[in-house]
Amino acid sequence: MATVPKVEVGTDYKEKYGFFVPEEYVFKAKRGLNPEIVKEISWMKQEPEWMLNMRLRSLEIFRKKPMPTWGADLSVIDFENIFYYLKASDKQSKSWEELPPDIKATYDRLGVPEAERKFLAGVSAQYESEVVYHSLQEKLTQQGVIFTDTDSALRDHPELFKQYFGTVIPPADNKFSALNTAVWSGGSFIYVPKGVKVEIPLQAYFRINAENMGQFERTLIICDEGSFVHYIEGCTAPIYTTDSLHSAVVEIIVKKNARCRYTTIQNWSTNVFNLVTKRAMAYADATMEWVDGNLGSQITMKYPSVYLMEPGAKGDVLSVAFAGKGQHQDAGGKMIHVAPNTTSTITSKSISKGGGRTSYRGHIKIYPGANNCKSFVKCDALLLDDESRSDTYPYNDVDAENVTLGHEATVSKVSDEQLFYLMSRGIPRAEAETMIVNGFIEPFTKELPLEYAVELNRLIQLEMEGSVG
Amino acid sequence: MADFEIKDLRASVEGREILKGVSLAISRGEVHAVMGPNGSGKSTLSHTLMGHPGYTVDGGSVIFKGQNVLELEPDERARLGMFLAFQYPVVVPGISMANFLRTAMNSKRGYDGKDKSKQVTPKEFRGLLKGELEVLHMDDSFLPRYINDGFSGGEKKRAEILQMAMLKPEIAILDETDSGLDIDSIKFVAEAVNRMRGPELGILIITHYTRILEFIKPDFVHVLVDGKFVLSGGPEVAERLEKTGYAEWGKEETAQPEEVA
User: Fold this and answer.
1) Is the pLDDT reported for residue A347 higher than 50?
2) A316, A289 in Cβ contact below 8 A?
3) Interface contact A413, partner B, CB < 8 A
4) Which of A249, A463, B180, B207 has a CA 20 to 30 Å removed from the CA of A231?
């Protein structure tokens, strides 16, 4: 059973928060969504009032906004049957034995270390590779870089936080960004000062704990002028959770001449609805790159976007989606050209297997006056069998002059000729198919740090084997 | 009994009968050439022997090491010791030639990711590769390139022979290896094949033209017309074809490529 923590309660909670909490208050997680839950979350975190008000306002917006009627089928989500906030210790209640065997088997095959797999499976609430993380933190601090979880950032860097939070993705942006703003918890906060280039990729992995890999993470990255950072979120091992809704928000500001790369590899267990809003603002001559890999989950809806705000800004999305049996990956990208002389590319690769479904959904918007823009979209779908499905939904709005807009889409199957060729060299069919699939996503894999690339290839291999059993 | 025995092989493509009873016995140490005009069934023969799914076997057998290989998957045939040098090598994007060669060698040795002793070591791999690359006048810049992607005609064919050299088959089928090659490339390819000749390797060269046979001397030559062998003999058969082409079987085709200006 979970050990239920005692909570220190301040003396002025009634005046401050407007609700009554007994002195010997014990926080008990409750299902459902209402202003009391939101107040409790904010109170537990001892947040400033502006954040509480923002949460409550966002809850109102969430209530009013209709469910999206496009994309994947979300009608089965029961918002009243979800825990919106759990203390890390409450999440620890599962035991290793209770895990589904396929998840355990995958950890074995991937060779995930014991401590780490317990964390990923939700059995343990903390996993920190401390040595790496602490020496890294020291170096970052010297450079003036802030890399922390979002809750701590609100507490420790209140002004910086307030200046940017919710400015890229306001609560009213969409139903799920409103939900996230109402109940967010955890996520990463990064600030890179002017001219600072962070040499090694910052990985949430270094300091993952249940707090920042929750269902409603909120990530905020600010790259000041001329800076560079590469942030890596997630890992290839499947993340097991009994919570069925993951709805994160990621906001990024890339100032003049700065560059930010955001790499995600997510592999949720297949009961999860993964509904994520990711957006960056790129200013003069800045570059924003989304590298986004989606495996696992039951349904993913995710369209990383870049608002190209000033001339010379550049946006890239490179994404891979893998949909197996019973999965629907609805992913793509959005490029909003607000300023002239801005460029963007979206490259989307999808693989469907065993009746899985992938959709590319993209939007290129070029505002009036944003002349001389270039945008290129390429989406390639690979179908591994006849029951699987892939669709493409590109939307283009061009209201400017002298614009170059390219769109290329291919749907292919693993070709008999390629299979025969590899097999004629002695390579067994299953391995040959895996090679072809890994070859197909190679433009994505080669952008990953080596250890992630290797793991991803191995994971694809496991997914491919799944078709046999 | 020969090492590799094709008996009364009949095969069709999309319901069209192409091979109408082909028999041929190849022993290791021998080089056989099958010559024939367009549409005679040459590529059906090579594809059927290797097990391409688009070709249907209607009858006959191919016995190799006591097994009817027609019942095996292409990869099983390869692991048994067969090799096909493709007329049109296939492009596979995203996989480097180095990775492909290493994976193929590991498969051939029966390495399935578990028994590390079967795995080709990096040192062994580089050593083997270096020698073969020199013979084929290739450099290692092609190793990181994707399989046959953007290769010139000559590079593709040389890469085929390189794979053959690395995989060390016992029965190798060279399908129109000379087509699309300039004379220098033919020489390099022939030199590499001749180096592999020996008591352990049986070779079946499938060709329209006699030219490659000037560089790789066959022990036996068979003429395939309309899905059947119409003539078999020694190297003199090739000489005869060089003079008269396929005219005596009613085909107005020469057995010499047009001179390249």
Assistant:
1) yes
2) yes
3) no
4) A463
